[in-house]
């Protein structure tokens, strides 16, 4: 209720509502200090028409409000949470795809609350021509750069808008890390479109090769009759299999389950742990063995990740409302 009221008062859009996320009740009704929402900037109307997505579309949406960065930052700061995801629709009608607008939001939030962890789930900023836009956002001061691959390579043109592409999305993730090497990168795949087992595995390998550290897998749920049909509902044990497979490939965290979405709240407990670990590595003396507690392989086993999450949750309980948001 607190987040819903804040959104209404600020007239902000969320992907939680626009995309009919199945976790909206769980995320928004969490206890004070832990509730979260994924804020959608650049308006609520997309210039693309992916066949799985419920966000409304238009070739020429209204231009975003120039004061949106300030309004968004003030709203986020008033919620007293420490981890926020900022995402957007595609804006192919804007020369830079909305990248500078994105960066203004990030910079202003960091001005108001420097300690806040920011994840940006971005579009491709007009494909291969949008790498300058990727650089603009990646260098704005965020902590996590997320961009979703959505599906396996074979099904890209079936599932996504024709202006999106598998290699273009890989290029976005690679370029973000090239611009700011200490960024955590993250991507997501939706299952149930008719993908094959080896195609899922190859997609995960491609993401690791691109330096992606966080990977999520969730089930496609048809928003309406006008959207593409569900080809297959995967049983829970298959999601467990892909979680284990991803960890064995070297991802630092894999969230996998029927209702998992790229911004699902539970993953942020692990994200906070990874970010704290990254900070320790960056600021510790080179000779200090305490600089990082990851195993030499740089990979947490599920047991190690669970232990890390438990310690983060304990810290959250001690810190009260100002603790990190386990989104």
From the structure above, extract its key features.
8-stranded mixed sheet; rSAM; alpha/beta; globular; mitochondrion; 8 strands; TIM Barrel; 12% strand; 327 residues; 12 helices
Commentary on this structure:
The protein is an alpha/beta fold and 327 residues long. It has a single domain (1-282), classed as TIM Barrel, CATH 3.20.20. It is 40% helix and 12% strand. It contains twelve helices and eight strands. The chain has helices spanning 2-10, 15-18, 24-28, 68-78, 99-112, 131-138, 156-159, 166-179, 197-209, 236-249, 267-283, 302-319; strands spanning 13-14, 38-41, 83-88, 117-121, 144-146, 184-191, 214-219, 253-256. The protein has an eight-stranded mixed sheet, with helices on both faces. Strand 7 (214-219), helix 10 (236-249) and strand 8 (253-256) form a beta-alpha-beta unit. Mean pLDDT is 80; it is low at 288-327.
């Amino acid at each position: 209720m607190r987040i819903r009221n804040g959104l209404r008062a600020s007239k902000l859009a969320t992907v939680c509502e626009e995309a009919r996320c199945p976790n909206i009740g769980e995320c928004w009704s969490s206890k004070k200090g832990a509730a979260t929402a994924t804020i959608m900037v650049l308006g609520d109307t997309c210039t693309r028409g992916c066949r799985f997505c419920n966000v409304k579309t238009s070739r020429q949406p209204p231009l975003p409000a120039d004061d949106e960065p300030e309004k968004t930052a003030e709203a986020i700061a008033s919620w007293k949470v420490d981890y926020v995801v900022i995402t957007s629709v595609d804006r192919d009608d804007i020369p830079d795809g909305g990248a500078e607008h994105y960066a203004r939001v990030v910079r202003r939030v960091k001005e108001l609350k420097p300690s806040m962890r920011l994840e940006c789930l971005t579009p491709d900023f007009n494909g291969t021509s949008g790498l300058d836009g990727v650089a603009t956002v990646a260098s704005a001061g965020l902590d996590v750069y997320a961009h979703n691959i959505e599906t396996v390579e074979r099904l890209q043109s079936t599932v996504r808008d024709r202006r999106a592409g598998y290699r273009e999305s890989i290029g976005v993730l690679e370029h973000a890390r090239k611009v700011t090497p200490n960024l955590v990168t993250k991507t997501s795949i939706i299952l149930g479109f008719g993908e094959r087992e080896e195609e899922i595995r190859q997609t995960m390998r491609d993401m690791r090769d691109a330096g992606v550290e966080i990977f999520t897998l969730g089930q496609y749920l048809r928003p309406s009759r006008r959207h593409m049909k569900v080809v297959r509902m995967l049983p829970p044990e298959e999601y467990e299999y892909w979680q284990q497979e991803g960890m064995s490939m070297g991802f630092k965290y894999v969230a996998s389950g029927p209702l998992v979405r790229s911004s699902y709240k539970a993953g942020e407990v692990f994200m906070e742990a990874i970010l704290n670990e990254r900070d320790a590595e960056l600021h510790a003396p080179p000779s200090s063995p305490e600089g990082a507690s990851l195993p030499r392989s740089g990979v947490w086993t599920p047991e190690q990740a669970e232990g890390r999450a438990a310690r983060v949750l304990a810290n959250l309980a001690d810190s009260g409302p100002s603790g990190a948001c386990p989104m």
